[in-house]
């Protein structure tokens, strides 16, 4: 993207020799209020070198800076130097770049580097509930963002397919299970066996012994236990895949915890050799008291392995297999302490890449009372939420388009309903806990997925009505007359389109897709303002071409943003 900041820094640097061009660049702000210009440099920092009041320096810089073509005016306002771009000059390169959808926002910074993203990672035979969706959509969005920035990304679904709970599940199935029940509704059924196991084990402790034996057999590869465990996994995956299909989300590997169990003995030995493993009441631990953390649990008193041990094996495996630049875990903030422990253990093992392991935490979702039951014990399944979103969206779309066919309504309802739930997860700042509310999620006029998708469909409709000849004129950048894009609403939109590449970069640096959702909402609002303030498809050919060019640029920017969030950009709505 044309880099106005860079050019301003270049122009100002000779006047402030104490600072490098990059240091000046870092000072440049984008004022909230457009009246304060397109860019501003606060002069407080410069006052230190100059022994001069900041507002004097601002005046001095403004007077002496030599104007680049695209700078219309430089104005000192108190301690700030404000830069106003020449709207016509500035608009052309921005629109030209946004015309090329394929490359818009793309960069090569990640070339040759691999990022592993561990996300979604549900547990076999446990519900894929509303809380899991956050890991799934945030992880998927980070994948899209890093992919656009040129990284090679490995999407890893670290399935929870191992652990003592499988012994309980097997024992429970043997007592109360039925093939037909499980096949019909795998997870709900398996879960009900599991809950029953816990209830009955209180009265009948022998059940625990059965479970222990079953898990032991599983660990030792006994045929019957392995068969059941594989079957539970297969059945659960069927359900998970249905949800992934609805969300349009894929993974490169489904290497679950079980895959790493073979690699654990080597890591346990390594911990011993490095003098890190200690005994505590029969369990093996790594003492982390020196770092103000509870000990990391490596082996249990009965010799069985633990979550943490599998994660140590996983991290080493990933480094050896992918030589990752970053190994990212998108997991709820409840596990923040756990990931700090994991990282510390890897560091103590002498792996300098431990610092490249990043936990990307997120807050919890709760449900508004009344919309869905949150009564104890009733889990809300993601699939039900998505189906309900599609159904409700269908009703809204039907109301707005009485003439549409059922098929069209159904098609749009899928895209918009699922998109609404995903957008909602992403637009709430990652770390915040939030309350899920249907009215908010499906508000077509609010700061929502449907609103942004609707704006994309509006751009598409303008382009359909513009006709091919105008579109061809609009794409002829050299001939475009920018004077028609001088208005505040057109220019406000251009400023936002210009912000996309930098914002995408920022979202990557902070692992924060909500930065993209924010810009997307602002851009959609700006396009709608432009659409309402101005007549786009006017008779004058030149004016019409310029305004259609801006519509194409806006459409591409919105589509890029939607794609980075994992949402579809509908042609019609
Ligand atoms: N299955 C775990 C859970 O649902 C999440 C796994 C996250 N990834 C990891 N490598 N520990 O809590």
Describe this entry's structure for a reader.
The protein has 573 residues and is of the alpha/beta class. It is built from 22 helices and twelve strands. Strands 5-4-9-10 form a four-stranded parallel beta sheet, sandwiched between helices. Strand 6 (277-280) and strand 7 form a beta hairpin. Helix 18 (449-466) packs antiparallel against helix 22 (541-565). The longest helix is centred in the middle third of the chain and has 25 residues, at 223-247.
* Radius of gyration using CA atoms only: 28 Å
Number of helices: 22
Strand content: 5-15%
E-strand count: 12
Strand order, biggest sheet?
A: 5-4-9-10
Summarize the structure.
The protein has 22 helices and 12 strands. Mean pLDDT is about 90; it is low at about 370-375.
List keywords for this structure.
three-stranded antiparallel beta sheet; about 10% strand; 12 strands; about 575 residues; binds arginine; four-stranded parallel beta sheet; alpha/beta
Blueprint (SSEs and pairs):
Elements lengths: L3 H9 L8 H7 L11 E4 L1 H7 L3 H11 L6 E7 L2 E6 L1 H13 L14 E5 L11 H19 L3 E5 L8 H12 L2 H6 L1 H18 L2 H14 L3 H25 L16 H10 L3 E4 L2 E4 L9 E4 L7 H16 L3 E5 L5 H13 L8 E4 L4 E3 L14 H19 L5 H22 L6 E3 L1 H4 L7 H18 L1 H8 L12 H23 L3 H20 L7 H25 L8
Parallel strand pairs: 4-5, 4-9, 9-10, 11-12
Antiparallel strand pairs: 1-3, 2-3, 6-7, 7-8
Helix pairs in contact: 1-2, 5-20, 5-22, 7-9, 7-10, 10-11, 12-13, 13-14, 15-16, 18-21, 18-22, 19-22, 20-21, 20-22, 21-22
The protein binds arginine.
């Amino acid at each position: 993207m044309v880099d106005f900041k860079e050019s301003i820094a270049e122009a100002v640097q000779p006047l402030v020799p104490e600072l490098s061009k990059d240091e000046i660049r870092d000072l440049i702000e984008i004022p909230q209020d457009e009246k304060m210009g397109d860019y501003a440099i606060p002069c407080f920092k410069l006052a230190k070198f100059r022994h001069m009041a900041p507002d004097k320096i601002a005046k001095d810089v403004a007077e002496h800076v030599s104007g680049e073509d695209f700078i219309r005016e430089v104005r000192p306002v108190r301690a700030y130097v404000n830069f106003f771009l020449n709207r016509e000059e500035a608009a052309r390169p921005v629109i030209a770049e946004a015309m090329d959808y394929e490359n818009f926002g793309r960069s090569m910074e990640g070339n040759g580097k691999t990022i592993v993203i561990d996300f979604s990672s549900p547990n076999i035979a446990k519900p894929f509930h509303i809380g899991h969706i956050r890991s799934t959509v945030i992880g998927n969005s980070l994948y899209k963002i890093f992919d656009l920035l040129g990284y090679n990304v490995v999407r890893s679904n670290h399935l929870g397919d191992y652990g003592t709970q499988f012994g309980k599940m097997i024992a429970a199935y043997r007592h109360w299970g039925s093939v037909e029940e499980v096949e019909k509704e795998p997870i709900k059924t398996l879960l009900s066996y599991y809950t029953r196991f816990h209830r009955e084990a209180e009265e009948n402790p022998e059940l625990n012994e059965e479970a222990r034996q079953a898990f032991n057999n599983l660990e030792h590869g006994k045929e019957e236990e392995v068969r059941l465990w594989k079957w539970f996994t297969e059945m659960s995956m069927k359900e998970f895949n249905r949800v992934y299909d609805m969300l349009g989300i894929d993974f490169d590997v489904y290497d679950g915890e079980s895959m790493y169990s073979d690699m654990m003995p080597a890591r346990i030995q390594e911990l011993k050799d490095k003098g890190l493993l200690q005994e505590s009441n029969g369990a093996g631990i790594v003492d982390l008291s020196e770092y103000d953390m509870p000990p990391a649990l490596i082996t249990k008193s009965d010799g069985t392995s633990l979550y943490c041990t599998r994660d140590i094996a996983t991290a080493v495996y990933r480094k050896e297999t992918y030589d990752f630049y970053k190994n990212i875990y998108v997991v709820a903030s409840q596990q923040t302490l756990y990931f700090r422990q994991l990282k510390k253990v890897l560091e103590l093992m002498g792996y300098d890449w431990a610092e490249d392991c990043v936990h990307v935490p997120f807050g919890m979702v709760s449900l508004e009372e009344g919309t869905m039951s949150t009564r104890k014990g009733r889990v809300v399944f993601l699939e039900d939420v998505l189906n309900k979103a599609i159904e409700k969206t269908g009703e809204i779309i039907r109301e707005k388009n009485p003439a549409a066919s059922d098929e069209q309504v159904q098609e749009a309802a899928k895209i918009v309903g699922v998109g609404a739930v995903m957008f909602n997860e992403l637009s709430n700042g990652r770390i915040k806990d939030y309350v899920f509310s249907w009215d908010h999620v499906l508000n077509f006029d609010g700061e929502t997925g449907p609103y942004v998708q609707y704006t994309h469909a509006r751009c598409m409709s303008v382009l359909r009505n513009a006709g091919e000849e105008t579109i061809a004129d609009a794409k002829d950048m050299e001939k475009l007359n920018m004077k028609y894009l001088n208005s505040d609403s057109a220019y406000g939109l251009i400023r936002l389109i210009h912000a996309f590449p930098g914002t995408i970069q920022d979202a990557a640096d902070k692992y924060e897709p909500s930065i993209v959702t924010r810009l997307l909402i602002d851009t959609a609002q700006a396009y709608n303002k432009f659409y309402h303030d101005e007549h786009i498809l006017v008779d004058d050919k030149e004016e019409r071409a310029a305004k259609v060019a801006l519509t194409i640029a806006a459409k591409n920017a919105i589509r890029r943003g939607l794609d980075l969030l994992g949402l579809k950009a509908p042609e019609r709505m």
